[in-house]
């Protein structure tokens, strides 16, 4: 079964307030990953897939700022792992929209 994870990777001490180049580099990792779906939002990235694959791609994303020269990285992860029925990004949004 799939999980949905919210991830934010923040390089620290880069000398710049702009982070878009780091976000783009992390998303290149996602573009190459197999077996996952993802959605970029203004504040984080949502990833859907099997737990092991999601955790592996998050680990790879965490390494990206180091590869880009950052000396410190803070990564926040929140995982929704529902085992009683299939979980999808669209299903979660649709459940709320149906109640509006």
From TrEMBL:
Give the GO cellular component terms, alphabetically.
cytosol
Region forming the signal peptide: none
Domain Thiamine-binding protein as annotated: residue spans: 5-97
Superkingdom: Bacteria
Q: Which Gene3D superfamilies match?
A: 3.30.70.930
What InterPro entries is this protein classified in? MTH1187/YkoF-like, Thiamine_BP, UPF0045_domain
| Family to which the UniProt record says this protein belongs | Belongs to the UPF0045 family.
Q: Provide the protein name.
A: MTH1187 family thiamine-binding protein
The organism's lineage?
Bacteria, Bacillati, Bacillota, Clostridia, Eubacteriales
């Amino acid at each position: 079964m799939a999980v949905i994870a919210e991830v934010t990777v923040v390089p620290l001490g880069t000398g710049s307030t702009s982070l878009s180049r780091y976000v783009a580099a992390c998303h290149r990792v996602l573009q190459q990953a197999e077996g996952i779906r993802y959605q970029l939002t203004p504040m984080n990235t949502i990833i859907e897939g099997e737990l092991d694959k999601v955790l592996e791609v998050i680990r790879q994303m965490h390494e990206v700022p180091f590869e880009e020269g950052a000396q410190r990285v803070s990564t926040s992860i929140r995982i929704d792992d529902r085992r009683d029925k299939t979980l999808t990004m669209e299903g979660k949004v649709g459940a709320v929209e149906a109640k509006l």
